[in-house]
Every structure is written in structure tokens, then in C-alpha cells.
């Protein structure tokens, strides 16, 4: 018995996708607790907006995707911090500072990661978890910057409209 649809206003249609693409997409989306149907619907809305020449709708879809990705990265950051024991986390953070990690935009995270890998007095498991944390934090900072730009434009425009009304 098929499970009930989340949205009653949907139609069921079949189409074909390459097996490898479907398998990889399903695995990645399940990690984000999303279905392929949700992803396809979002993609089709964005593409429809592009075809109709409605750029604001396409940008809104990008904005929603950025918000979801940011929330996922926040959770992933928490998981990595939780997995690292306090002593290793503090030691690795100190080493990252000593190696010159720029916490503002993390542009040199790759260089710091290479230096951390060469460090022999820290367990490999802790080093790899911390490097994963650096990668997630770097991506999170990039998305936070994009979200800040979008929101600044959005809310500045809304505030201007409210003042003129």
C-alpha cells in the first residue's frame, strides 16, 4: 500500500532517471530527511520560474535551499563537536590558531588541515574529525555570508516599502 501524499494537490506521474543518478540523489537526500519528490518539485518550480522569466521565484527557491543547507550544516557542526572529546578539541583548536587559521572566512583551512595531518602527537581519529569540522564550518560560513546578503537586500527593501506606506 503506498504511503499517503504529503500534499493532496499533487499528481502522480512516472518518468525515467538514470539509475546511478537516482541512487546517489536518494542517498544524499535521505541524509537531509528529504524525499526525491520534494527535490523534483523544487527543481521544477525553479525551472518553471526561469522559463516564465520570473527571476524572483527562482531566487526564492535558491533562498529556501540555502536556509535548509545552513540548518543541516549547523547540525553537522554540533555532531562533530560532540564526537571530539574536550581535550582533543581544545588542543586542535589551539594548533589551528598556531598554524594561522583565519576563523573569519577560513580561506586557509586547507593549509591548516595539511599541517594538522602532519602532527603526530594527536590521534588520527581526532585529526580527521576536526578536519571534517573545519570543512563543514567553512561551508557554513560561505552560506551564512550568502544568506546575510540575501536577507539584507530583502529586509532593507521591505523596510523601505513600509516607510513609504
Describe the structure concisely.
The chain contains six helices and no strands.
List keywords for this structure.
mainly alpha, 165 residues
Note the topology.
Layout: H1 19-31, H2 36-51, H3 55-83, H4 86-98, H5 109-118, H6 124-164
Helix pairs in contact: 2-3, 3-6, 5-6
What is the H/E order?
HHHHHH
> What structural class should be given to the helix and strand makeup?
mainly alpha
Q: How much is the radius of gyration in Å?
A: 21 Å
Low-confidence stretches: none
Shape: extended
Note down, in words, how this protein is organized:
The protein is built from 6 helices and no strands. The longest helix has 41 residues. With 165 residues, the chain is mainly alpha-helical. It has 2 domains: 37 residues; 110 residues. Helix 3 packs antiparallel against helix 6 and helix 5 packs antiparallel against helix 6. Helices cover 74% and strands 0% of the residues.
